Model the fold of this input.
Amino acid sequence: MRDVRSDPEFLREHCIQARAVTEDGPESVRRSGLRPTHTPAVLITRGQIKQQLQKIIDLTPVDERRKAFRLLVAVLAVADERRRARFCSDGCGHWWHSLPLAGE
Done:
């Protein structure tokens, strides 16, 4: 398994696989704790989700990359929550749906 700390593409791919959509942007920004004016937050709400996710992972200043990571984790959570409810409630093959809970 790749290390998401050194491979933001890995996290982007999972957001896409979870079927993130532009409408997930505002809730993702809220959950991430970022201000709506931070660069990753602005990008995620601009439409064309795949292109915006790519722009977010291409941000280079360290501070922006930290914000980008927080936001992408939130995007994945929002999209995955919807996907689980709609498509995976009867089982699926997503490896992250089978992770043990902390302490198990």
